Fold Cytochrome b5.
Amino acid sequence: MTAETKVYTLEECKKHNTESDCWLIMFGKVYDVTKFLDDHPGGTEIMVDVTGRDATDDFEDVVHSATARKQLEGLYIGELHEDDKAKMRSAGVANAPAGASKASPQAAPNPAVTFIKAILPFLLIAVLFLYQKKGSAAA
Ligand code: HEM
């Protein structure tokens, strides 16, 4: 978080809950999506409906693309107040990070990559084993 980063309380965010003035709270950050509403492929209403509360789960439930996540950066206006982040955490709201300050969340890791990383050591051992076996058979 830089010195110029604006911090908004939940109460303040709740005031921006219409089509002509629409803020979303996601990942502990505040986004002014007013100008984006008409361009949102998922529609206007769905966004206005999730104002005034944490919309992280709503956003994640749709499994938005990397492009959508990149768009978030341009809509970022500041951080949610630490007290409100803490309240959301204690209320069990997911993804209200303690001190993360990036304007957009990290894209979720690709499950295929995670899987390959996990089995790589076993694959190497198997290849070495086969190679050794082949060598001793030839001798
Ligand atoms: C600033 C926040 C948001 C951005 C930048 C955004 C952006 C996008 C984009 C680019 C798509 C097209 C598919 C893709 O590339 O993933 C999309 C689709 C969609 N979004 Fe969002 N979105 C935002 C917030 C939300 C929220 C909070 C909800 C739910 C409450 C939502 C619901 C949907 C739905 C349902 C679709 C699918 C539309 C369809 O394929 O019929 N979006 N969004």
Notes: The chain has a mean pLDDT of 86. Helices lie at 10-14, 45-49, 56-61, 66-75, 82-90, 111-138. The pocket of protoporphyrin IX containing FE is lined by residues 24, 31, 33, 40-42, 46-47, 50, 55, 58-59, 62, 64-65, 67-68, 71-72, 75 (CB under 6 Å). Residues 109-139 form one domain.
